[in-house]
């Protein structure tokens, strides 16, 4: 493209040159990708094997376990949910972040990159912590491992939402490397040591991921971010693209919360609860969004994000007997709190606490995640044999082995403890990782180039200059206006065609 | 955004002020959302419980029924289809309606809102009519209830298509409240009293929903709708977005028609028939669309809509032994009729019958639904033991209990009777509900503001004025032209960037 | 639309008139659609019946085979994968091709048309070759037949990628008719006669489809294609739309490679391998893409396409015990090779071999397909009883019946032979079909109208003229410039609004 042959483009490049950071990632990005991928291959070669349901010895396993039909393979219990979760990770998270007018490539593309790396590293980290076979020293993977790897990646993608548009892909890969590592450890503490239940990850995924991202964003605070203000809004079609992400997350959240719950009633119940909770959230989100504007107009930011809060908050309790109206109540309050978060808390976080949260993950993941942890603890503590049945209670909370004497009250306490662990891991881990990402070697963009795909992507299409919300007339009569400092005096808006 | 600082925008707002209706929904919308959601919570608390396959007593149910494996839980028979149906409701219907150049937020967003409300109300209404346990006074829900709730919502979303862009979200919620109520009653009459079969809802969903929407649109007729003509077309990208809706509806329609059919061969056959019928429809739609233009060009309106008619028309007969070529024949004629509907019948409806049908639901749902009802009646009447087998015939038409002596001919008659019930409920119900919606309290837009997201949504992006299909040169040389009555003389087209 | 009332549009039409080919398809397209669809109905009536799992006699089949539960119906093993494959065919392939700035309707719409026709013809062709019952002379279809029909269509859609924007819909239908025919024959030779394994179709689908398309494109070479250069690039939103296609292909590829593998461990293992291979491909694609630009920027063309190469290359070996790290290695190299293909090989093909490959199917399908065939041959030849188990080896390679004495080495040889068959069928078949498509009766566009939806679609939206990458100033000051030959001197770019 001959983009450089126009005054406008040349001018812009010249103009930016003096302030521009070095965003050349031609060395770092390929090196990181190659080295890490080769490391993955070696570590997989050493550690990862097919489990007994996915290797060719299944025919003998079946005979040995008196399994009469292939349909008993765990694959058929979990594959539909797995694919839904997979869509949430790649299309859901990816497109949800395309709302910015000129950062769709980065939203979808970097989401794609870090999820693809993260899931490999997650299989290893989760394998070492959860399922390393002591005899063979191997990790045996099956469909449930893939779901857990996707879950682990979700935590890092949530964190990406806080720093969207302000970091380089290399920083994102580093953030994912440490995020997955921290995730596997906190998950091990919460699920295995504390024996808390958290099938949909209100605590281990959303609370951890939310605070991890917020802490990183706090360390990477940019006081001059207003210099890229022209790029921060959405345009009409970018908001429509974002709704693709919202809807796929919303529709498939029942699969997310039920993907690794118990076979049979466990998966069935988790789906019903999540379905209902999310429906309830939509109505209260719309209500608060409409209340927040003088004429009752709705704000796409709320519809795109807060409608999902009910799913987050049911991550822990969806598999419990929270009852259908209980799920509706959780969704009801999450819609209100999350939307009010966008209206009141996000500006407060930015101004007072110096946390710049591009996607508002505090309102969509961190707060609803904490609510979900609390709801889970209360629901667990309130469980009773009369409601669950004797065996049902044991199955639901897995009161077997070392934990067979645990009472529901104790369980509630451990659930609450798990909540705290995930917050601590998120905040402390995020602060440390943020410090690493602050090193000036990662190729992050200058303040005035944030939220702009042109920094890391070949963008083939010209942008048209706009002035005060409409095409700038001076542009046509006198392109010289665009040379030099007058440009900022005009406060132009660039919107895409 | 500083949109108000341009002449154009100021002018536009001033200009419109005198005629504008009060579209302020800051009071009504939140009140309706809150009150209805709280009512849902209370009613769910009183009535709705998990069924035996989704509560923790499943372990005892299994033992009691000699079920050996969790995979026998109805969840595993229906969950993949349920998720497909869920995608059709939220992404399919939502994005199908984004074809208008400036109503994508309303299409996807209001669809999201009314579906989320409707499915809750549907669980209650359908529960009261179909599955209220007389002993406990409770409604027990499982995965099949969720599918039925989504189906019920589909009827209302079809009706939304007729009034798209011309009503307020409050009107839509009212329309959904009554729509779901009427749906549950007509469904009860058709399926339970008449004992007609209609697994994919040609009659109960599409015919009812279609006529319900058309009748409402007839009552709400706007003689001056041409005042918002500039907003009624599509733009390039809005047509592409609409194809997302079309394709997800088309691809998942086999799941729609098979979601609640009999386990085993019932679901299997319904998928095959729908898959084939839809494929056939695409070819005849393309043929007629090409024939309708002087140079054989295709029209996206036809491709987006008429390609789906075959799925609608197989809603009743898909589970029958209509045979693969039978499904192809149904699809063949539906593609022709539906496309001709867009070319000839829609203009006739608008001019002569004063029915303004934004999405052409008459061609996509009402007509093909009626065809589907007739096909179902004929196929049922022509069923024979030689084709179905003795037990197969009983299973397919559920000739058990009170209906065990019914013949296939009688069944065909009752199918036809069901057809009439759905039309009557749609037309009469729609006329009544339309009268309610005509009250001047719902915040509906003025004739010249129809099909414009700016009425109910915060839209952050400027529009550029176009004149005679290209950017208006006068705009740049003399912005004063835009002040006052000259504007309408110019007949400007607003198209989004 | 009053598009003709502006100088610009009038000029453009006048200007093009002299060179324009006759693209009127008002006769040919409807005739082809009608005749072929009627032929399908007749042939289906003669040949196609429900198989024993999808007809009402299933109740007797079950009893006869001592099947205790409906969940044993093949439908429940394969339906979730089928729906994923269906999404890949219609949304995946369709949207992947929307990257061109002004060919989204053609990409999604023609993809829709030819897939809908192709799957019907595929059911017949594959039925005659693979499953014609010799006693009854009928083809019995079930869910696996539908998957195979979708697979067959995939081969033709791959070929469409090479000629995207340069052919008429009639040519595409002809290409699909012959493509499906050739596919069924080569598939019969490879899978039945040579008894090669190729569940995900590295050979039968991707290699064949790739070379079929390339050979057609070679025959249809247009030396003056540069005349439509202004239409060949992407714009910002068209690249975002294309990512919808990319991601749905990427996410559902595990379902593609596992859809028709053995029940149980076969499907389970194929999913794990494909999931891992694809993840690995993303990292190396990003690495090479970044390396290829001076400043390390990423190119959407690579991200949209090369990230999928790992799935193609695991089409044969995914069901084997290639082991998780083996899958990573395959993905690793495919990402590198495919991306380098876009950088180095595509320009070479166009300049030296005169093959114009719009979507780069050589890099995404042909090369990775060949790699997949080789990997499959090697993995098969290296299989051993110690890894697979005695029965596992027999099951995996289906060493039963006539092939029960085959060794793994022989099997490796036959796999390699299958590879060659698919290349030969693709190249020779494509050359012949290309010659047929060269006849001047199909309504293909002139060189300067390629990649433009206006040729075959009613496009309602104006285009704005751009010059040197930004809005052309002369356009506003002097529209006369656009009349006549000066237009080409200006080398204008048309970009959509």
Automatic annotation (TrEMBL), chains A, B, C:
**Tagged with keyword DNA repair:** no
Q: Which residues form the Ammonium transporter AmtB-like domain?
A: 73-455
| Chain's role | Functions as an ammonia transporter. May play a role in the elimination of ammonia in the gill.
Q: Which Pfam families match?
A: Ammonium_transp
Query: Which taxonomic lineage does the organism of this UniProt entry have?
Result: Eukaryota, Metazoa, Chordata, Craniata, Vertebrata
- The portions of this protein that span the membrane are 27-48, 82-100, 107-127, 139-160, 172-191, 203-221, 233-252, 272-291, 303-322, 328-349, 361-383, 416-437
The entry lists its GO molecular-function terms as:
ammonium channel activity
- The organism's superkingdom is given as Eukaryota
Task: Give the matching InterPro entries.
Answer: Ammonium/urea_transptr, NH4_transpt_AmtB-like_dom, RhesusRHD
- Organism this protein belongs to: Salmo trutta (Brown trout)
What does the subunit comment say? Homotrimer.
Q: Name one GO cellular component term.
A: plasma membrane
- Give the family from UniProt: Belongs to the ammonium transporter (TC 2.A.49) family. Rh subfamily.
Q: Name one GO biological process term.
A: ammonium homeostasis
**Membrane topology, as annotated:** Multi-pass membrane protein
Keywords on record: Ammonia transport, Cell membrane, Glycoprotein, Membrane, Transmembrane, Transmembrane helix, Transport
Q: Where in the cell is it found?
A: Cell membrane
Q: What is this protein identified as?
A: Rh family C glycoprotein
